[in-house]
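Protocol step 6 of 9: fold each sequence in the batch and record its structure tokens directly after the sequence line. For illustration, a two-sequence batch is reproduced in full.

Sequence one:
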Amino acid sequence: MDRIVNMVINRLIRQVVNRGVDAGIDRVSRRGQGQSREDAMTPEQEEQVQRNQKTARQAMRLGRRASRFTRF
């Protein structure tokens, strides 16, 4: 009996968590509705974002390159 209750509770919890994750993703992914982030930024902020994106890409490339040397 305990296993059946546990299975039902786990299933309900999984459904609730999935709904929460889906709702969060939907909310974050809404673009083009209202004022977008890019429109709200000043030109200086846009330049900073571009620089941050560039450094993030470079870091990813370096990480991939370094991982080649650490493989056995």
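Sequence two, same batch, same settings:
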Amino acid sequence: MQVKNLEQSVPELFQVANKKYLQSEQAIEIIKQNIGVIPVANTAEYRVIWLDVGDFPYREWKFRYATQNLIEKQELGDCFLANRLLFTHYLISKK
């Protein structure tokens, strides 16, 4: 049995996010305004996909399945693509 990666499981997430690349300043404002925006995937282009998951209960050990279930149950929320350096900024700000 071959395990699917997140891009294979929910290709619409990647398709929608790839159409909405944000500069770091724009992305930071969205993240600050929406507590449910989290990084959910890396792309081959060294970018990070961010998704507004609201208050969906995530469990790290089944992250891929939780993301797939969220999109299937609640539809694809606001998502965007940003430079990977923004992810580093995000991690530092959470400390």
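Proceed to step 7 once all outputs are recorded. Observation for sequence two: Helices lie at 6-9, 11-18, 24-33, 63-74, 84-93.
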